[in-house]
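Deliverable D4.2, example record:
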Amino acid sequence: MGEIRKLKASRGGDPPRESTPRRLAAIVAGDIVGYSRLMQIDEEGTHGRVKRITRDLIEPSIAGHHGRLVKTTGDGFIAIFDSPVEAVRCGIVIQQNMVGRNAAMPKHHWIEFRIGVNLGDVIIEEDDVYGDGVNIATRLEGIADPGQVYISGGIYEQIKHKLVCGYESLGDRKVKNITDPVRVYRVLPDPAAFNRARQRRENLLILLLSVVLLIIAGGALWYLVWGPHGSPANRASVPAAPEVQKALPPLASKQPQPQPPAVAPQAVPQVQPAPQVQPVPQAHSAPPAVQSAPPIREPAMTAINGGSFTMGSNEDATEKPPHKVTIKPFAIGQYPISVRDWNQCAAAKACAFVASGKDDAPVTNVSWTDAKQFVAWLAGATKRPYRLPSEAEWEYAARGGTQTKYWWGDQLQSGLANCKNCSETAAAEQPLKVGSFKPNPFGLFDMGGSVDQWVEDCWHKNYQGAPADGSAWAEADCGSHVIRSGSWKNDAQYVRPSNRDSYDTNVRYPTHGFRVALPSTER
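Output generated by the structure prediction step:
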């Protein structure tokens, strides 16, 4: 029979059937909300903006998270990833970046994506992907709120302990053309967002319960005043509570069977909220003392003498060309900003979220914009000109007066940095506390590993045209900024003092933190 098939194929019949490649993948489906309306408002402008977003945001974000863009659909896209974690991270990055892009636009011109992520077995072709896994991702995208990422239960089980974010269960949903209900979760990128959402639900429940109790109280009061125990005369002449109290005793005395005296007093108090107990002021007591705000705990700073050094290296194209830079004296944080430091700002309502984790751990999941909010608050609260260090200042401080590959030499040594293969300590979901390793020659801790650290500079792909005086290479409006240091999730290549990378200005990421600087006159 096999020979007959071969013969038929050789004579121009049906070719032998090849097996279709299948694989398990995380599928990301994105779609622009109200695309037709946007096109009606400004067809050419909308088309151009969508093309720029695809080129400058969608494609780089997918590639940067090790995914593959399968196709674009004019108002949307479909991508596949080997890793569910990277798929969801990509969705978060896209959504948070769009917040910044929309900030300067009128709301009716906003471009907002809905994103769905699912894990499933799919059929992959050169320019498309098929299967129920894809269908579920697109259905999740269809029910997602604008600016949100919805994930399936399969994705949730894979990532629930691996990302610094919250998840809100939306229950099982019946979606079109899918036989079984799909468990749906909303991704909450802010670490405190899940608690806030839960608190809102609890507050709503309390409000509903209060309404029910008030209805019961009103019914009880109506029964006492207007019910069968009240005479027509009393019902007609009792508009207020004092007259009710006068009418009730004679009404009770006329009854052949005296009513229990506890009925009226007990009915209303049981449904009223408990009163707040207030201290009774004495005639000659002193006025209560005014509590002052707790003092600001400033970061420990280290003075750095000025000098010249060779910035950059020949190890990566982004670090070229090596060039001489002269640094003025300044001060820089001895450690990255910690959770305790950050939460002072959050308590003052000047920073966007309350950081989770141990107080002495470095704060994470911070965008460049978040870091700038913190230094602005710290400068205002202390009356000292705190700022982010420039990229040149950061590298000068990280080298500690050396010009070697690492601050300790040209060879990797175990136990000197908090990175993936820099010590025998097993990789953790969170970085170690600040100062867990030996400081560099300038007495600075965690200048390599621990957390990626934001600096002031806009991102440039190399040092062509970079300032030689150590100042920040800034521009009026740049979409991404420089990060330094590498993190506990990266390998040793990232902890080199010359290593540099970039990230979107308004986007948070679980390994990103920062440290602060001061001018020399404020050390």
